[in-house]
Amino acid sequence: MLWGRIYFGVQAAAGAAWWIAVAVSPLVREATLGGLDPLAVAVADTPLFVVGSALAAAGVRAAAWVATGWTLLVAVALAVYATLTTEAGWGVLVMAAAAVASAIALYLTLTGRVPTAWLISGPFAFRPALPSRMAASHLASTGAQIVVFWGFFLVVVPLAITFFERRWAVGLPFPWFVPAIGVVVLVLASGLGLWSGVTMSVVGNGTPLPSAMANRLVVAGPYRFIRNPMAVAGFVQGAAVGLVLSSWLVVAYGVLGAVFWNYAIRPHEETDLETRFGDDFRRYRDTVRCWVPALSR
């Protein structure tokens, strides 16, 4: 609860500072509001965003709901405006980040925690694969998963992000050689992902998908050096695609995906592994690091 209120206090101060910058700097005004009338926007935004966030920081729960709802509304409205006009792109990014942070802060303010259990429910609930299936069947399932997930998260989503980055005019220049580096990194990370998937299927008698997890604790192949090679490969792939596309937002997408997985998904996954494999997993967890490979193993 305290951290949620602290965030709203920071947001109130940042919102006030932003409006001061809008008033004194044409560059800030154009980058964040485009051709919108700042006075007309300020009439609604100052009480609902700045004052609302300040009241939420003071412990007024209704104000937290108002500030969060308004932030979400402004983020969506600005996104539509920027897409139609190619203006105010930086304002979209700022308000989108504030909307996500406000939603998290609202949950913290109301409940004292961020609910993440719903992320591993339904089709993404942790369940072991059918142990009776042959390794070839698990390999086929893993291959299908790779095609679907890589196609969506490494092709569809990055292309959509790149489209909006260019439409909103928020791109940053990249050196000419960066795409070539991205291709090399993408190939290496993809190789790691394929190696991890094959090892999971053959040795673990399962797949990387949470709903068909390995039946055996896998400590072979790349899992000897790092606990989550499939996840590491995926996030590096995302950042590499950003380099290939010369898109800093796609690079950020890969990095933020890693942060999200580490704090929202990994704790649940490791709790499940500890429940199923007990001391074997605890010894493995204490020996092999999560993110940084131990190449001497």
How many structural domains does the protein architecture include? Answer: 2
Number of helices: 10
Reported for the largest beta sheet, the result is:
none
Structural class: mainly alpha
Termini separation comes to 43 Å
Describe this structure in words.
The structure is a single chain. The chain has helices at 2-24, 26-33, 38-57, 61-85, 89-111, 135-167, 178-202, 229-245, 248-277, 279-287. With 297 residues, it is mostly helical. It has two domains: 2-115, no CATH class; 121-287, Four Helix Bundle (Hemerythrin (Met), subunit A), CATH 1.20.120.1630. Helix 3 packs antiparallel against helix 4. The chain is globular. It starts with a helix and ends in a 10-residue tail after the last helix. The relative contact order is 0.09.
How is this structure best summarized?
This protein has 297 residues and is mainly alpha-helical. Helix content is 72%, strand content 0%.
Keywords:
Four Helix Bundle (Hemerythrin (Met), subunit A), 297 residues, globular, mainly alpha, 2 domains
Tell me the layout of helices and strands.
Layout: H1 2-24, H2 26-33, H3 38-57, H4 61-85, H5 89-111, H6 135-167, H7 178-202, H8 229-245, H9 248-277, H10 279-287
